[in-house]
Amino acid sequence: MEFRKILVFGNRLLGDSVDSLPAVAALAGAYPQATFHLLAPSYAHAIYASLGRFTHFHAMDRGAGLRARRGLGAKERLALLWRLRRERFDLAFILPGGFAHAATAALLGIPVRVGHPTDGRRFLLTRTAALSKLAPNSENFEALLGALPTPVAPKPFTLPVSGEGPFPAGSYLAVSPCSSEAHRVWDARNFIALCRELQRRTGCQPVYLGLAEERESIEAIRRETGGVNFAGERTLPGLLPVLRDARFFLGTISGLAHLAGAVGVPSVVLYGPSNPTLARPMGPKTLAIFHEDPGCDHAARTKRENRRRFDINAITPDEVLRRMEAASFLPPSKPVAGQE
After folding, report:
1. Looking at CB atoms within 10 Å, which of 59, 155, 250, 328 has the fewest?
2. 5-147 carries CATH number 3.40.50.2000
3. From edge to edge, which strands make up the β-sheet containing 112-115?
């Protein structure tokens, strides 16, 4: 079955957007003559644009910037729906969950609507693929390819990066010490102790990445360790060469961790009460560090009552170093000095 015009419903979160790129790239490769439109929050457009296949971008908000989430007004939503309905799409490829996305595809009169049958929306979809909370998000998105009328096989994927970075390749560590979610924040003292030891053992300075509003918090860490505070210095596409050229990436699970995995840089990612299977970044070498509990599967870690049980600050700098040595990120050495 051929499709002439395809509407891809993009994800809201940066990490999910990155994880969906292999599925979208495979879909685009299977239908090279089709025209691709994206319906997603404006801050996700640049991520999907990196594939070079979208010719039309439709915003689900009025904002700009990574955290701009101001929705459209009623009149704006109706105008957007009218414009999209006039496009007469053949296929809706719905990446995110949520009832509204499937309902929108149905209202637009799109004959083939592919998505996960979650959130009570199965009857709005014409073809579905099961969502597993014990599989990486990237695999769940790729499962949608198998639900197409003519199934499409997933393909190996690395996010394309062009241009020179601002620092010599391999001379620094890309470090993301902040998070917008409190349960994902690893104490600044831990980052200071760990980055000092990593500098001693690798000879690489830390380059700290983050949003402009995180710059002051990151500067407090940088003053203790040296290195470069690069928070807010680049747009998301502009960060790709910085991640690509790093010796490795270090941070808690975040959109930047997913970007690092997608460009193929070795990554060390810390988890608290997040699902380390579902939220695992792509990439050939990602070291996920978290505390396991035989009595609690990965999907149940995210429940509010388990947040203290899987406190990210129970992970120590010494533990991270031992895990990095075991995974050959570092040669064996003495553990980091005790925290003050």
Report:
1. 328
2. yes
3. 54-59, 35-40, 5-9, 91-94, 112-115, 127-128
Neighbours of 136 (CB within 10 A): 18
**What CA–CA distance (Å, rounded) separates 260 from 251?**
10
Q: Which residue has the tokens 């300075």?
A: 205
Nearest to 220 by CA among 229, 211, 230, 212: 229
Q: Please, which residues have CB within 8 angstroms of residue 224's CB and are 6 or more apart in sequence?
A: 192, 196
What is the rounded average pLDDT of the residues 287-293? 87
CA distance to 40, 174, 331, per residue, from 104 (Å): 13, 40, 53
Position 278 scores a pLDDT of 83
Query: 338 vs 289, which has greater pLDDT?
Result: 289
Of the ranges 79-88, 93-102, 245-254, 326-335, which one carries the lowest mean pLDDT score? Answer: 326-335
Chain centroid to Cα 100, Å, comes to 22
Ranges for all domains in the chain classified under CATH 3.40.50.2000: 5-147, 172-326
Distance (Å, whole) CA 243 – CA 257: 10
For 87-161, list the strands marked E by DSSP: 91-94, 112-115, 127-128
pLDDT in tens, 16-69: 999 999 999 999 999 999 999 999 998 889 999 999 999 999 998 755 444 445
Nearest-CA neighbor of 22 among 128, 160, 132, 122? 160
Percentage helix, strand, coil for the chain under 3-state DSSP, each rounded to 5: 40, 15, 45
Spatial separation of the C-alpha atoms in residues 154 and 157, rounded to whole Å: 9
In eight-state DSSP terms, residue 61 is B
Question: 172-326 adopts what CATH topology?
Answer: Rossmann fold (3.40.50)
pLDDT at 169 over 90: yes
280 beta partners: none
